[in-house]
Amino acid sequence: MIQYLPHQHKNLFASLSLIFCFLLSIHPQINAQTDQELNQKIKTLIAKMTLDEKIGQTALRGRSSRDRGGLSEELKQSVRNGEIGAFLNVMDKEMLTELQRIAVEESPQGIPLIFARDVIHGFKTIFPIPLGIAASWDPEVAKTTARISAVEASGSGIRWTFAPMLDIARDSRWGRVAESPGEDPYLAALLAKAYVAGFQGKDLTDPTNMAACAKHFLAYGAAIGGRDYNTVSMHEPLLRNVYLPPFQAAIESGALTVMTAFNEINGVPASGNEFLLKDVLRDEMAFDGFVVSDWDSVTEMIPHGFAKDEKHAAALAAKVGLDMEMTSRAYEHHLKTLLQEGKITIETIDFLVENILRVKFKLGLFQQAYIPKNQKAKLYHPDHLAAAKKAAIQSMVLLKNNNTLPLKETQTLAIIGPLADAPHDQLGTWTFDGEKEKTITPLKSFKASQATINYAQGLSYSRDTSTAGFAEAIAAAKNSDVILFFGGEEAILSGEAHSRADISLPGKQEALLHELATTGKPIVLVILAGRPISIPRILDKVDAVLMAWHPGTMGGPALEEVLNGKANPGGRLPITWPKSGAQLPLFYNHKNTGRPADSSSFVQLDNIPIGAWQSSLGNDSHYLDLGFTPQFPFGYGLSYTNFSYRNLRLSKKQIGLKEPLTIEATIKNTGNRKATEIVQLYVQDVVGSITRPIRELKAFQAIELAAGEEKTVRFILHPEQLKFVNHRLKEVIESGDFNVWVGPNAAQGLKGAFELK
Ligand code: NOJ
Predict the structure, then answer these.
(1) H or E stretch at 647
(2) Across the chain, what does the average pLDDT equal?
(3) Closest-CA residue to 220 (of 276, 168, 280)
């Protein structure tokens, strides 16, 4: 068994890399002294600041996302006194400019403010929800959408977005799964990198760029039972192997800020968590941007039962290096006294201020504090709308298709369902600036197409329990060749604090679908929702299922093109799709257990003989009623063509620690349409010093194949990709047997094996 790179040594590596960066920074030919100059500027400025001004920099003053009230004299005076470092949700350009003018021209040191906003999946042009973007399995989609978001939002003076959200989510009951990159650390890390590149651009001082904020640090997605804000209990190897990688990737890509999470982890709230904020973030990951709390998360350490009062909360957060406090005012109220009482040191406060100033300098705010006069935000620019349509197409996942899709040109369509013409709801969660008036719904797009349409909503919103519209919907169905049912969830049913225990279609949607099925017309169920929706009761009543997530501004045109076959649905599931919320959490990269579930011995509850003997059912890890498999596995998604996989070839049966392994497979498009397949590589480390997941995604490639075309896909697997953190908190690569699969999802594929010597 080979072990290398003990985890403790990462600190050493971090220190060495810091020294290396320092050497680089002082080498005149390599780097024009930027880091050194920057640190000098920060030190010089801090030396001039009073204690009150320093504390002022740590204040992020929030307005509610809808606040359109004016500026009070009191607020202006606070800025004039240097008592505020940043604002959240100032959306009036004149107001924003005036605040900035006061900060720059009238405050003691003229330090510019930074203006923040939750620009999560678009500013005006709204893209699919992040879980939908993750379903594209295409980092370029994440990058492009982030870039456009920055261009649009920075035109309103927003230079800091609270995105990307990088919480691994294994439980779709959690409302924030909609904002997440899904369940897989590898895919999430690729997306993290792309989002940061898109938001921050190449030149941070370019006023069309925004500082990214990797949030929520850490493990927020593992809240008990999918209940928002709830407790997280997690062993450190899991934290490091699954929840940390996307944050690591964001920080390596230069994310300027990190937001703490609301939850506690193993008894310590994230905003006062020394291990996370000091040991992991600063010491190991060498993060030199600033850490912002979440909304009131500093003072929420009081109800958590971790801080006894506001003052205690301020001390706890400051000591662990939480630099900026969002909305609550514990720092403002208490840092000074804490210093006078010797409970914190001036170095503690200076550290916070240095980090904040570093980001403001890096963003070029000292040179360009205002929205440049010539900057045109190009809101809803045709290029942005085209990118939104493309992203939506790439995000859509075809889950079932009995040859009903694509639609045929001559068919009369019954357009039914609460989400067929719901311009607000198709935007999804976190779209403060999106406008429903600019949203193109599926109904609008189909009306604009050549198709003959019979429209009857049936239900007026997703939770509607009235059957008053059923008769009209059934009549429309009877007069049509195909039923397009646009169902799912309203936007308000996912996102922050919007968890659901039952994740099936709300209201009377299933009842309506059952009635529509009695017409005998083929039904295409299009789901617009912020999470996977459990559909076992209706899956066999419908002929096709397309998951469109909340697809954003251009959801309608994207759906029209996909359903009509002008475009292929491009997405694959970034999260396991359960049969029921009662199966959750459910994820593909689980452990095997000592008694893995087994289809040969499993007896479903309805088939258990009366009076069956206690252990006659196979004592394995499963539910008697729901079994153990999901409805659709991670990575799953159909296409308008079929692909076959054959001839898996591994370059060697055994490899050494430094030897890459070449893995090849031949993929053929066996249908009659050109399409893109996302070929996925999974690995299993069969025996480990701690037990290892049954499969882990290690790589994937999107390949376009013409009808009948065949291509060989080649992956190079480096032993480095097999490392993990074990129970001794050592990062190790362990020798032994590995299984590999190349396939279309986490439950299928060609299987091979190799040994790492
Ligand atoms: C609370 C949310 O958890 C966070 O994601 C968001 O950025 C802040 N509120 C600011 O709106």
Answers:
(1) strand 643-650
(2) 95
(3) 168
Ramachandran bin of 633, using left for φ above 0, alpha for ψ from -120 to 50, beta for the remaining angles: beta
Does 294 qualify as catalytic in the annotation?
A: yes
Nearest in space to 247 (alpha carbons), one of 156, 300, 180: 180
C-alpha to C-alpha distance for 165 and 130, rounded to whole angstroms: 8
pLDDT above 90 as % of the chain: 92
Separation CA 558–CA 527 (nearest Å): 14
Q: Is the pLDDT of residue 25 over 90?
A: no
How far is the C-alpha of 468 from the C-alpha of 170, rounded, in Å? Answer: 38
Name the pTM for this structure. Answer: 0.95
N-to-C CA span, the chain:
8
Contact 265, 273 (CB under 8 A): yes
What's the CA gap between 131 and 139, in Å, rounded? 13
pLDDT at 33: 54
DSSP structural state of residue 252: H
Ligand 1 centroid to Cα of residue 699, in Å, is 32
Residue bearing the CA closest to ligand 1, atom 9:
295
Burial class (CB in 10 A: 0-12, 13-18, 19+), 252: middle
Angle (nearest 5°) at CA 623 between 622 and 625: 140
346-363 pLDDT per residue, tens: 999 999 999 999 999 999
Q: Is 496 in the pocket of ligand 1 (CB under 6 A)?
A: yes
DSSP-derived letter for residue 417 is: S
CA distance 703 to 711: 8
Q: What CATH code is assigned to 392-563? A: 3.40.50.1700
Is 350's C-beta closer than 6 angstroms to any atom of ligand 1?
no
Active-site residue among 118, 288, 294, 464?
Answer: 294
Contact, 164 vs 587, CB < 8 A? no
- The residues that bridge with 326 in the sheet, in sequence order, are 60
Ligand 1 within 6 A of CB of 215? yes
With the most atoms of ligand 1 within 8 angstroms of its CB, the residue from 228, 229, 259, 271 to mutate is 259
Say yes or no: CB of residue 176 within 6 Å of ligand 1. Answer: no
Q: Are 127 and 380 in contact, with CB atoms under 8 Å apart? A: no
For residue 137, what pLDDT is reported? Answer: 98
What are the structural domain ranges in the chain? 392-563, 643-756
> How far is the centre of ligand 1, averaged over its atoms, from the C-alpha of 294 (Å)?
6
Going by their DSSP bridges, the two strands 750-756 and 736-743 should be labelled as antiparallel
Return the best residue to mutate from 118, 260, 293 for the ligand 1 pocket (most ligand atoms within 8 A of CB).
118
Q: Indicate the residue type of 618.
A: G
Spatial distance between the Cα atoms of 241 and 224, rounded to a whole number of angstroms: 19
Q: Which CATH number is associated with domain 643-756?
A: 2.60.40.10
